[in-house]
């Protein structure tokens, strides 16, 4: 009986430590997001790094592919969800379709 109680107590302590670690990780992630949002340079640097990693991963799967091809593929995928995302914005701040389409790369010549 004492062995069961001791192992239950040990398991409870381990579980509390795991929960505390998970909460700490979540708080650290939230802090990092706030910092990136609060400091534009850090946010821009993060976006650039994330995009660089995505491009490197794409080039591993598309050997010989160019950055232009990558941009066009991403643009084609983005167009599929763009309308849905834009519709969630209030009409007063929603950019026109022409404005958004003008920002996309010209992929007609490949």
SSE inventory with pairings:
Layout (H helix, E strand, L loop, with lengths): L1 H37 L1 H22 L5 H21 L9 H7 L7
Explain how this protein is built.
By secondary structure, this protein is mainly alpha-helical. It has two domains: 1-38; 40-110, no CATH class. Helices cover 79% and strands 0% of the residues. The protein has helices at 2-38, 40-61, 67-87, 97-103. Helix 1 (2-38) crosses helix 2 (40-61). The chain is elongated.
Based on helices, strands and strand pairing, what is the structural class?
Answer: mainly alpha
Shape: elongated
- Quote the beta fraction: under 5%
Spans of at least 5 consecutive residues with low confidence: none
Write down the overall mean pLDDT.
Answer: 80
Major sheet details: none
| Total DSSP E strands | 0
Helical amount among residues, as a percent range? over 70%
Number of structural domains: 2
Number of helices: 4
Radius of gyration, whole Å: 23 Å
Could you spell the SSE succession in H and E letters? HHHH
Distance between the termini: 74 Å
Keywords:
elongated, 110 residues, 4 helices, mainly alpha, 2 domains
Please provide a brief summary of the model.
This protein is an all-alpha fold.
């Amino acid at each position: 009986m004492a062995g069961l109680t001791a192992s239950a107590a040990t398991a409870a302590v381990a579980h509390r430590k795991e929960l505390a670690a998970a909460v700490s990780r979540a708080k650290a992630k939230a802090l990092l997001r706030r910092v990136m949002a609060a400091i534009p340079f850090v946010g821009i640097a993060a976006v650039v790094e994330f995009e660089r990693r995505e491009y490197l991963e794409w080039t591993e799967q598309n050997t010989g592919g160019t950055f232009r091809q990558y941009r066009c593929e991403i643009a084609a995928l983005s167009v599929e969800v763009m309308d849905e995302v834009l519709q969630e914005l209030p009409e007063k701040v929603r950019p026109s379709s022409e404005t958004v389409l003008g920002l996309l790369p010209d992929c007609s010549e490949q």
